[in-house]
């Protein structure tokens, strides 16, 4: 007969788990710090600070069931744990917060499963998975949510008899102009509803079907509610002569409306609530059948997990030590063919933060004028990186410029024929119709792409293969009337010299 019981096995396992979590916290402290900073400064993700405490409370509610089973260390979670460590390394090398933070929480969950074993992990499966709601991710949904909100608002306004002229996420009605910006996307409502709704479904229902249905409702309701909120705000402003639903009361109204909608959703959901099922007495034979594992096995498993966990930050340090740390020298050509450098012809300045080097110049050939902006990055980190949501041609906060349309398209005239991100820009919106066409793409150690995701993967591969992370954003723009011919001709004549200059700046 085994000499241990569930209660005598738990202290050893918890001690090993606490030590392993200490190793994780020490090794990944910068990632934890970055996550906390986002929680602290962003209203959208402030709830992340509460998630670990909620998970701990949910685990505490299961203490009787946990006491009835015996923890049993397992080795198979080492495989997904190693994959998570590698994912963290990729995210760290390419400065992708979402990937490093997701990998970190996965490491925590996988470590707990490895030391607790199947029986105990099943008891607290939801509290462990609920930790993923601490991830401050979701901004990637903003463009699509903004587009949907604008679509619905315009359709609803026209259905109400209000004439609308729309261009991109901006539209004009007889009483004034409106824009669907990040704050109108509804991402805050969606994340808050999904987090609280999932917790509510877990505590209120016990059948998987009802839980999944309520979680789906928690996703759909805030999206539709945000559409209605945007439409009602515009209508209130329109009917009141722009005296209501503008400024601060715009935001206050939004949260009050959302709170009412969520309260109604929960009240309706309570009609199908299921009574809590109290766990029955544990099966003594089952409890003792899984206790024949030596206590030192938990420490050996924890030691192996600690080695795997620590390998990620160590590999990151070794790779970065081999990088070129010298400041790049970016010397772009001043002339090519019939194109000659000249003074900038407009005040457009793409918004790329903290480049290692940058160049902004204009060229002219006959009646054609083209602007060229290049932002060069080396030794990228979370404060200085090429691909990020804030590095854009024109931000929504820019008062002098506005993006009318954006799309991805092929440009056969381009050297190496990459896809480009094409933007139609309006200068001084409301003061005229001065429009420009801009093309943007990335140069990653000689590879060209217009995809931000591909740019990240190319950067990661370049680092892993020992070639550094030298990368650049290239943007060319011209007045819309001549943009087709001007940008194509410029691409054929000038871009080969630009690429050579970028290769020389790389210096490898």
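^ Assign residues to that structure.
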């Amino acid at each position: 007969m085994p000499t241990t019981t569930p209660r005598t096995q738990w202290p050893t396992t918890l001690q090993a788990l606490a030590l392993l979590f200490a190793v994780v916290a020490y090794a990944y402290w910068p990632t934890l710090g970055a996550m906390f900073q986002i929680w602290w400064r962003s209203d959208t993700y402030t709830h992340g600070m509460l998630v670990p405490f909620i998970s701990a409370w949910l685990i505490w509610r299961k203490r009787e069931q946990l006491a009835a089973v015996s923890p049993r260390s397992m080795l198979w979670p080492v495989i997904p744990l190693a994959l998570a460590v590698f994912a963290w390394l990729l995210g760290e090398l390419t400065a992708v917060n979402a990937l490093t933070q997701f990998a970190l929480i996965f490491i925590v969950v996988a470590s707990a499963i490895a030391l607790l074993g199947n029986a105990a992990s099943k008891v607290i499966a939801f509290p462990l998975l609920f930790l993923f709601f601490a991830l401050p991710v979701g901004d990637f949904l903003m463009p699509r949510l903004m587009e949907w909100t604008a679509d619905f608002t315009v359709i609803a306004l026209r259905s109400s008899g209000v004439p609308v002229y729309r261009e991109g996420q901006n539209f004009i009605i007889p009483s004034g102009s409106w824009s669907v910006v990040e704050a109108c996307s509804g991402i805050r409502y969606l994340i808050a509803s999904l987090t609280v709704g999932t917790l509510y479904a877990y505590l209120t229902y016990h059948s998987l079907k009802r839980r999944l249905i309520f979680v789906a409702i928690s996703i759909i309701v805030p999206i539709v509610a945000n559409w209605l909120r945007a439409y009602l705000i515009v209508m209130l402003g329109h009917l009141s002569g722009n005296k209501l639903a503008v400024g601060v009361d715009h935001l206050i109204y939004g949260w009050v409306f959302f709170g009412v909608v969520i309260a109604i959703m929960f009240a309706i959901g309570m009609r199908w609530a299921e009574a809590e099922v109290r766990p029955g007495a544990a099966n003594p034979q089952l409890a003792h059948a899984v206790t024949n594992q030596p206590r030192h096995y938990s420490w050996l498993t924890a030691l192996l997990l600690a080695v795997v966990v620590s390998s990620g930050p160590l590999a990151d340090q070794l790779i970065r030590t081999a990088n070129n740390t010298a400041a790049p020298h970016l010397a772009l050509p001043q002339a090519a063919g019939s194109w000659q450098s000249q003074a900038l012809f407009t005040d457009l300045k793409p918004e790329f933060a903290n480049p290692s080097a940058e160049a902004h110049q204009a060229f002219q050939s006959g009646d054609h004028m083209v602007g060229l902006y290049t932002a060069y990055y080396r030794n990228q980190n979370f404060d200085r990186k090429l691909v990020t949501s804030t590095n854009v041609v024109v931000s929504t906060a820019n008062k002098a410029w506005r993006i009318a349309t954006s799309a991805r398209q092929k440009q056969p005239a381009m050297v190496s024929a990459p896809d480009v991100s094409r933007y139609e820009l309006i200068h001084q919106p409301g003061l005229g119709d001065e429009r420009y066409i801009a093309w943007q793409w990335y140069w990653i150690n000689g590879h060209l792409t217009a995809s931000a995701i591909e740019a990240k993967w190319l950067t990661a591969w370049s680092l892993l293969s020992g070639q550094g992370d030298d990368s650049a954003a290239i943007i060319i723009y011209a007045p819309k009337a001549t943009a087709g011919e001007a940008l194509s001709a410029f691409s054929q004549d000038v871009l080969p010299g630009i690429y050579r200059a970028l290769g020389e700046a790389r210096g490898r």
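The chain has three domains: 6-136+283-321, 140-272, 335-506.
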